[in-house]
## 1
Amino acid sequence: MRYGYSGKILRVDLATHKVWTETLSEEFYRLYPGGKALAAAILLQELAPGVDPLGPDNILILANGLLTGAPFSTATRFSAVARSPLTGGFGESEAGGFWGPELKLAGWEAIVMTGRSAEPVYLWIKDDQVEIRDARHLWRHDPEEAQAVIRQETGEKLARVLQIGLGAENLVRYGSLTNELRHFNGRSGMGAVMGSKHVKAVAVRGSGKYLDAAAEAPPLSEMGRRLAKAVKEHPSSWDLQVRGTPGLTAGLDAAGILPTRNFRQGSFEGVDGLRWETYEKELLSGRRSCFACAVRCKREVKVDDRYQVSDSYGGPEYETVAGFGSNCGIDDLQAVAKANELCNRYTMDSISASSAISFAMECFEHGLIGPKETGGLDLRFGNAGAMVACVEMIARREHIGDLLAEGTRRAAEAIGGDAPLFAMHVKGQELAMHDPRGKVGVGLGYAINEAGADHLTAVHDPMLANPDSLSFKGAQPLGITEALPPRELSARKAANYALMENWNSFERAIGLCFFGPTPRSFIPVDDVLTAVTAASGWEISAEDLLRIGERATNLARLFNVREGFTRRDDTLPERLFQPLENGALAGVAIPREEFEQTMTALYQLKGWDPLTTVPTRERLAELGLEWAADLVGVQPGQ
Amino acid sequence: MRVHLGGHLSWYDPQKRAWLELNQGGPIALLELVHRLGVPPAEIAVATVNRRAVDLETAVAANGDTVEFFTAVGGG
């Protein structure tokens, strides 16, 4: 008997417009209980190596976790997974909002899309009824408009709509997905993959109830009530509710790790224009939440001043504030909010888009590109108007925007000269707005993550630096025993990193938000265990949870190995091995030799060959992944 | 003296204030200041006095100074 999940996968062949249902076994689901884990297993098994990420043969998987849609705070996430058009490797991105829970209530664990439709379509899913509908009239229309039309056509005012906008339709390689206009699978270009398949949207409405399928409903109900109150009783979740991520900006500047002018600097003289107090005064119009979540970390903004910013697409998160703000040398938060609105309207990842523009600004200032390429824009650091105009150019693929839409790695190769030194990416995916020179574990994560630079690969070092802190104590049940300085590179740091990578990977598999569980926030490990057991009926330990995360990461690694990735790809941009120019950490660089030694220790801890980064067959066998070893050709002793 | 409790540190203030105006008789050690404010030092990752990063263990501040305390940032 299965509990907490239906086991049903919706298969969609877009070339023939056929749909069918596949049912997963309990044995399979227990090893890969959704999200990243489930999607990675399917992708590795079914995608032939070397396919064009934007061609019809790529596979796009949208996968819920076991807990997605459970009625307690932060159980909202689903994963989008495919071969990434940005990196050519494992592509992965999670989102909250309402779409994943609605899909769960409609009775589906995942959707697997193959092929390409001849004409634009949208999927309409109402419980077990699935239709592929004409979307030619929606193509090129903004998400707000498309969502309204889809709800009218389906007669469901509460249909949850996952969709793409102009940027993803134009195959901007960091095209994103949006649901409810405000929640994004931002990274890895999953929106571009959906655009390449000519799928405008996936609308869903479900009539099920999560608790009806749970092994034991009362513990989940009790947890929902208790956690709703606990949000205000824990400092971190309370802060997320009051300020959200935009509250981070001033602290990172003070610490000397606020990415500024394309990561040359760690402190921005215009930070007062970007900090929370300015955000609250100039932008804030309200707060929103995801499904059943009391944290309510989402900011709403509206501006009618220097810029007009719609309140339909959500407010900028910290990453976007730093990306379009300090990292472009811009202190005008209204301009940042406008750039954010455009990224959300056109469904483009604001981290990659802003990084592409700061890269272009540095190229412009070095004379590698000029007004001829920029369509007349004076694309210098600090020019807010040019920055906003450049976002439009990327979405429409006009002038320099056409090149920047390819991502910084490809743009740098095309521009040539010193441009590759200005391209801040790993494996082709742009760095998030956290400078590893002040928290080196983030650098380990940027380097090793199979999807390229990602700041949520593991919890950040400062949270595990003080043994008396709430976050350190919260991580102890996971096996964290040593508090380590944020800039220490060592085998001990690799051990802490590996544990926290497995934990974050587990969160991505199970459908929990990074802002729920400890050590980042307020849900203790015991509650996570209770939730998994109550939902599924499985007796499970913290170690088991970590193995779920580790198993998923190994599948992603094997995917990359098969695509030809090597240790050379697990590195950082050269700039991070050079000293910061200003701020509290002026003169600080990542020591290259210690970094490489720590990476070697990390591979050994993971049971991967340090030279090739291929997981050993023995380690794969321990994780129950012999089938994957066979598939990729990992031999004993290799 | 202006004091900023950045990030989740303002949770520890009974009125949940992020900014406080304090009138100190004389210079005060930052550790003593956070003790009086009821903020656990273990939650503070960065301290600044007049925008300069300082050592929480040894720094002092006086009337007229702006003191800011920030938490460890865990991503987001």
## 2
Amino acid sequence: MTLKVNLITGRTINQGANLENKTSPDYLEATAYCELNSNDIEKLDKSGNNVKVRTNYGEVTVKLKENNGNPDGIAFIPMGPWANAVVDHDTKGCGMPGFKGIQAELEGTSDKILLMKELIARYK
Amino acid sequence: MAVITDALCPFCGCMCDDLMIVTEGNRIIEAKHACKLGAAKIMGHHRIKEPMMRSDKNGNFKEVSYDEAIEAAAQILVKSKRPLLYGWASALCEVHKKGILLAEELGAIIDNTASVCHGPSTLAVHEKGLPTSTLGQIKNRADVVVFWGCNPAQAHPRHMGRYSVFAKGFFSDKGRKMRKIIVVDVRKTDTANVADEYVQVEQGADYMVISALRAILAGQAAVVPDQVGGVTKEQLVKLADTLKTAKFGAIFFGMGLTQSKGRYKNIDNAISLTTELNSFTKFVIMPMRGHYNVTGFGQVCTWETGFATAVDFARGAPYYNPGETASNDVLYRKEVDAAMIIAGDAAAHFPANSVRHLAAIPLVQIDPYWNPTTEIADVVIPTAICGVEVEGTAYRMDGVSLRYRKMIEPTHPTDIEVLERLIERVKEIRGD
């Protein structure tokens, strides 16, 4: 079953600490995940440890993590290439794309998480 | 072994100036007092060793000389009818100055990382001005501090200790004990966990919540519904009372406002709230700037061109209109036909549709590190790290300029040297 959420992206300390280290496994670990609270995780089907995030702008597979600081229906992905695979490019006339407040559908998956190089290669 | 005291951190907009850097030979072995973010940058990671080029974006890079790489970069930029020069925030003001010269020479668009950060805050300041202060004034005076849509515990780890929450100052000698800390956010962050009061707003409802607070302050609480943007009227009335009875209040705001529904209008409204609070007491507002010198780019660009960022030189004179001339506007419209990314990583931090276009056009990268932009670049020119290997000026998030000293000697040419050679070569090719 897919779970409909409101997706936000943003900074974290581990994402920042690996800002100059983006080819490393540490950067992938720090940014290629999606946080939901335990209620929402319960609602997801459990076909794997990862989660597929689908929006009108793209789809990406990331690790699923629990964070009970999130209210129901809010998903958080740290800023970076994985989050940006699914954010809204529209700047609403002021230069700023839609990095927060994106309607997304999530489903559990056992698909693998693309490495940074593989993810960016999709754009070439 | 040598020790540099009172060194400046070149990571975030806090620009902590109390670091102690221990060097051995030309190597940094310790960055005392730095947070996890600052230490990670100062202690360093794998660098791009030599300039690299490739003729096919799917092909392998070949190492080349600086002369060859600069020649190729100049050819790409001169042949372009609509070049974009983006990044700049991890570089010093002296680099920005050269970048603006290059943009003017090329008739390019020059834009910095504020485009995906506090660009909307600049638009709001155009409309309303900015009742603000230095971080020192907040440290010495503030007894009520609001963090709205920002999470310094993760993004500016020493901000609370040095300036805003735990810091002790002249009129704030009791530090945390004399301050009331309020966090307004859509999720309970680590910063919310140290606050006295957490106000949880529905995602995208910040504008309404600010408007409700303004109505209550104006004595019109009767028009406010029982709940606004997920916040009860009772909590809003209590919050308005806390704000107006502060001796000195400060609002810090972040991407929670600039990137959510309403974008710059959220900041516009928050500035109005701050202005109105000054009818009751002293209140200031400040954006939490990300990269250490993203503020500096805004300063240099404003004194050179009249505009803070997203400046288009195509008409021969500076023109500015974010929504039309900002990086993501010109990328997803497929308007630019070549780009140079310097001291910023567009491929990591732009939406996929913008990155797709960057991957389709000739792309020059100037950066010390291999990152997603390298993956789609045609020419890569590695440079020295500003603030670690290069001295110069940067502006803290409150607009205070500070001078960086070198911690160690550079092993690569500086951004300034590369840009000077690029400008010279561009002029030669164009026959100027």
